[in-house]
Amino acid sequence: MIVEIKVPDLGETINEVEIGEWLVDIGGRVKLDDELVEVESEKATVEIPSPQEGILVEILKKQGETAAIGEVIGRLDTEEGGKEKVAAEPDAGQEKEPAQAEKATRDIESDKGESPEPAPEESRERKGDMPEGSKVKVMPAAARILAEHDISPETVTPTGPGGRLLKEDVLRAVEDRPAAKVEKVEKKEEPEPSLAEEEISEDELEHRVAMTPIRRTIAARLLEAKQNMALLTTFNEVDMSEVKKARTLFGKEFAEKYGVRLGFMSFFVKASVAALLDFPRVNARIEGRDIVYSHSCDIGVAIGGGKGLVVPVVRRAERLGFADIENKIGEFAEKAKDNSLTMDELQGGTFTISNGGIYGSMLSTPIVNPPQSAILGLHAIKDRPVAIDGEVVIRPIMYLALTYDHRIIDGREAVTFLKSIKERIEDPRKLLLEI
Fold first, then answer.
1. 179 FRET partner, CA 20 to 30 A, in 54, 148, 260, 386?
2. What's the CA gap between 216 and 193, in Å, rounded?
3. What average pLDDT does the structure give for the chain?
4. Lowest-confidence region among 9-13, 78-82, 346-350, 420-424
5. DSSP readout, 93-156?
């Protein structure tokens, strides 16, 4: 039976996706829920799982092409009898190179039931003992891991149908490698040559690439914010001495008890939540002629992901402790690296915190993430001279920036809101006492 592979519903606002890498070649066998193909939406990259066990016999949308939600992008054959026919006779609307069709047919034939006495070549192939001079058939997911760990495919025993090298085979090989060998695998990137070092022709002075859906969405939302909001930024500075002292005194015990490092971000999330409860309009948004107040503090945390800036949401942050917040942010950071954040994790924030300080930023004016009304920008901590009780002392100082929509938030409200965050960070005991 032929089963269609369709683009799933990824959220109310998403109408189409861009096809990423197919993780299985035509003729490859997959199990139920095995990853088939990556698709990239305007918010995240997701992997479409196999709806059934079978063999991939047709790819209708290739990498880089767009597809609508619900559109068929490929087909699986779940029965033994129909594999050869589909591989050898593609639909009229899809042309296949003769060599490709022949290869797919050969691959599918190798997946049929085991014969009582396999030929010597077939026996060697199924055991992973490839004949001399032959090439191992490496699946895309396996190829990525081989490249990451600098492993030659010939050194790994393939267990897939037709002697294919699967992702699981490579993962087993990585686990079995000696520790010393794994450490040896770090690649050194060679510096890019400057224009002065070599002659470059006129045709090589620039190149053009298409914007990814995520990058297009970032651009559109930033432009929307600049055009549709009355944005204003207010600044303050905060002495980080007490927070740094708390991390020094209790960081080790905190990590031992909760299994996560005590970072700066949890302090700012807690301080922001307390300030939002004091100034609910900063946590509100404009819809038409109405102001919509949120009864929960859903804090978006800006994180640099593999394909651009993403803002996953820590939901109901007013109910979470320091450890819960740190665990959630750590989980988001890991998912952002491999582009596995879900739609639900990226939607519905009421206030955003962006920490440019981790990249060394001294001061910036962050742009509000619509439809929210404000965003807090954090910056690098630097030792600076400050006057305290008539004396000049050196303290670790961070500059804070609050950009807000002046249509809904007044200047006095914004300045007082930012000042309340400053006071709670400079005396964290207020966070513990919830004052």
1. 260
2. 30
3. 80
4. 78-82
5. TS---HHHHHHHHHHHHTTSPPPSS--HHHHHHHTT-PPTT---EE-HHHHHHHHHHT--GGGS
Q: What is the rounded distance in angstroms from the CA atom of residue 232 to the CA atom of residue 366?
A: 10
Q: Which domain holds residue 258?
A: 229-433
With beta carbons less than 8 A apart as the criterion, state whether 30 and 47 touch: no
User: In degrees rounded to 5, what are phi and psi of residue 390?
Assistant: 80, 5
* Angle between helix 322-337 and helix 265-278 axes, rounded to 10 deg: 120
Which residue among 149, 207, 406, 427 is the active-site one? Answer: 406
For tokens 């063999």, the residue is: 55
What CATH number did the domain enclosing 39 receive? 2.40.50.100
295 is an active site residue: no
Same domain, 419 and 279: yes
Claim to verify: residue 256 and residue 367 sit in the same structural domain:
yes
- Please give the average per-residue pLDDT across 150-175, as a whole number: 76
Per-residue pLDDT of 134-162, as tens digits, reads 456 777 667 777 777 778 787 888 876 66
DSSP 76: E
Residue 81: both structure tokens together = 């009898």
Q: Would residue 406 show up in a list of annotated catalytic residues for this protein?
A: yes
State the catalytic residue, choosing from 9, 129, 150, 410.
410
Question: What's the structural domain count of the chain?
Answer: 3
Strand 16-22 relative to strand 381-388, pairing:
unpaired
Residues 434, 427: Cα–Cα separation, whole Å: 12
CB 271 within 8 A of CB 324: no
